[in-house]
Design brief:
The complex is a heterodimer of chains A (452) and B (174). Chain A is of the alpha/beta class and 452 residues long. Chain A is 47% helix and 14% strand. Chain A folds into four domains: 131 residues, 3-Layer(aba) Sandwich (Rossmann fold); 174 residues, P-loop containing nucleotide triphosphate hydrolases (Rossmann fold), CATH 3.40.50.300; 73 residues, Helicase, Ruva Protein, domain 3, CATH 1.10.8.60; 54 residues, Arc Repressor Mutant, subunit A, CATH 1.10.10.60. Chain B has 174 residues and is an alpha/beta fold. Classes of the chains: A alpha/beta (452), B alpha/beta (174).
Chain lengths: 452, 174
């Protein structure tokens, strides 16, 4: 047996205790017996039982009462009631009080074997579930958000304050400051943590697609809708939905979203069935929504609905004291991932990193460190491992093929990657710099497999 | 030493065949007891079944040799009070075991007779219950003879062999 299962048999008849003990011992279980309620209660603290089989009719305290008391001591205990009489009333009452099942004596060996096997499985699943929940709690994102600066301490405080409420949160801050991390930290610290957090990147989807992404669709709702598909709002039931780049959604979707926020009800595209969903909304944007409201491109009523609790993330430039912390965190992270024995960065590199302006914020810093770990040699990361501008002077990456005439595709690929690195992965900025729309950038990233 | 004790078991040639098989399997001298055990005192009239645990106690009294494993063989419907029936029973790490052909026979289930199937099942049950007397508990291995069987087909699914783990556990005893 993979795991020793321990069983307690409570019956006033010696012959029942002996025969069950013998039977279960041969099954490989660890078996204890008790002739009555008091003996059972005495044994419970002494042994850790998985399953208790107890007779419903015993002199003194009966099985139902004993079950209640046993459950008070160990709520997860699996109790199986044995009864000599097929009395539905008592069985129902036992089940109502939380018994796993009841059996009528004499028992078919096959039934008993199956019942106990299932009970063992249930007990194992309960334990596993508890263990996994603990694991999730210990994986809380908070520790992935690095920062000892007063600004970040304030952010952590805000996260703690708002997490346990069901309040709608809007996170604002420049690109690459960790808005999604804050959203996840709120989610994992809330009572919704065991349900999903569903993220939707409004910036990456055209308005028409956002609708079916959000609400799902029925089969045949539009050409290509071959199957019913659940929308993100439905998937986020009991959990959290995270709208990234909320500023990019069109007016039609804004209206639909407003209605859903108000009613918590919607229908799938092409369907009539009203779906109730219970979700918490967290949204994030790097654009100035107040401005968009003034310009009329973002609905004012939706803005107020979404912006109930506001968290403003500082740019990395505003908290330079956190840079060394972040650098050592990322060095450790990528060194472990790439199995390279880096212990940190040298002093010169750290000075350079601390003085850099980081327009792409933490994401840019993270990408820079990742690249440095790829190209550098342990044990310390040095200035030469970073490819970007220092004090306005561009340090070019040494290239072996600088004399070679490249194809246009290769040039385009490198140029886009350069722009991505330069902006720290801010696609809107990349699009602006290269004077094309965002969709083109996303397509090229996909086509060339670029790192955004 | 293994001693087979017939309990109102009439098929003598069957008993002899089993004796030879068990002797070969366990590599220990195996005898058939010249005297039968009378099962009548163990009949529970209300259930029309025989109480196997009481039979084991009787076997223990009847065959006092400390170094002998005793296997009662019968064709009676056996029970223990808590269960509707048992195919057999054994004292874990003890001396005595009992098996019955009653519910191993196709006839009991209204199926066409299958004497070879019955022989094989009875042989598997004999090894299984003796396995308990040698200290083996039920095994999770699908094919191991020590796998628990609560209905006839389950006995057919397993082999009459010990799995390597169970084998390793009892090997030092021989």
């Amino acid at each position: 047996m993979a795991e020793q299962v321990s069983l307690l048999i409570v019956d006033d008849e010696q012959v029942v205790r002996d025969s069950l003990k013998n039977w279960f011992t041969q099954e490989g279980y660890q078996v204890e017996t008790a002739s009555g309620a008091m003996e059972a209660l005495d044994k419970l603290p002494e042994f850790s039982f998985d399953i208790v089989l107890l007779d419903i009719k015993m002199p003194g305290m009966d099985g139902i009462e004993l079950q209640r008391r046993l459950k008070e001591i160990d709520q997860q205990l699996v109790v199986i009631i044995m009864t000599a009489y097929a009395s539905v009333d008592t069985a129902v009452s036992a089940l109502k009080q939380g018994a796993y099942d009841y059996i009528i004596k004499p028992i078919d060996p096959d039934d008993l074997s199956r019942l106990v096997r299932n009970a063992v499985m249930q007990r194992r699943l309960l334990r596993e579930n508890l263990r996994l929940k603990e694991e999730i709690t210990s994986l809380i994102y908070m520790d992935q958000m690095i920062g000892e600066s007063p600004q970040m301490q304030e952010i952590f405080r805000l996260i703690q304050t708002v997490a346990d409420t069901d309040t709608t949160v809007m996170i604002q801050g420049p690109s690459g400051t960790g808005k999604e991390l804050v959203a996840r930290a709120i989610h994992v610290n809330s009572k919704r943590r065991y349900f999903p957090i569903i993220a939707i990147n409004c910036g990456a989807l055209p308005d028409t697609l956002v609708e079916s992404e959000l609400f799902g669709h029925e089969r045949g709702a539009f050409t290509g809708a071959q199957y019913r598909r659940k929308g993100k709002l439905e998937l986020a039931h009991k959990g959290t939905i995270f709208f990234d780049e909320i500023g990019n959604i069109g007016l039609k979707t804004q209206m639909d979203l407003l209605r859903v926020i108000e009613t918590k009800q919607f229908t799938r595209l092409g369907g009539n069935q009203i779906i109730d969903a219970d979700f918490r909304i967290i949204s994030a944007t790097n654009s100035n929504l107040e401005e968009a409201v003034k310009e009329g491109t973002f609905r004012e009523d939706l803005y107020y609905r979404l912006n109930v609790f506001n968290i403003q993330l500082p740019s990395l430039k505003e908290r330079p004291a956190d840079i060394p912390l972040l650098v050592s965190h990322f060095v450790q992270k990528y060194a472990t991932a790439m199995n390279k024995p880096f212990s940190g960065v040298d002093q010169e590199a750290m000075e350079m990193l601390t003085n850099h302006s980081w327009p792409g914020n933490v994401r840019e810093l993270q990408n820079a460190v990742e690249r440095a770990i790829v190209v550098g040699s342990p044990p310390l990361v040095t200035v030469n491992d970073f490819p970007f501008t220092i004090n306005g002077k561009l340090v070019a990456t040494p290239s072996a093929d600088s004399d070679k005439v490249l194809t246009l595709e290769e040039v385009e690929k490198r140029h886009i990657q350069f722009a991505i690195n330069k902006t720290g992965g801010n696609i809107s900025q990349v699009a602006q710099l290269l004077d094309v729309d965002r969709a083109t950038i996303y397509n090229k990233i996909k086509k060339y497999g670029l790192r955004a | 030493m293994i001693i087979l004790v017939p309990i109102g078991f009439s098929a003598e040639h069957e008993l002899e065949r089993m004796r030879a098989l068990l002797e070969a399997r366990f590599s220990v001298r195996t005898y058939i007891s010249p005297t039968d055990l009378d099962p009548r005192p163990f009949l529970e009239p209300k259930r029309h079944q025989y109480y196997s645990s009481a039979i084991l106690e009787q076997l223990e009294r009847d065959v006092p040799q400390e170094d002998a494993k005793v296997l009662g063989v019968c064709s009676l419907d056996l029970y223990i009070p808590i269960l509707t029936f048992v195919f057999g029973e054994a004292q874990l790490n003890g001396r005595c075991a009992v098996i019955s052909s009653y519910r191993l026979d196709n006839k009991f289930y209204g199926l066409p007779e299958d004497p070879e199937g019955l022989q094989e099942r009875l042989y598997k049950e004999a090894i299984h219950e003796l396995g308990h007397t040698f200290g083996l508990v039920h095994c999770q291995d699908q094919g191991c003879v020590m796998r628990s069987s609560t209905y006839m087909e389950e006995i057919d699914w397993k082999s009459n062999e010990f799995c390597p783990d169970c084998m390793a556990r009892i090997a030092p005893l021989f």
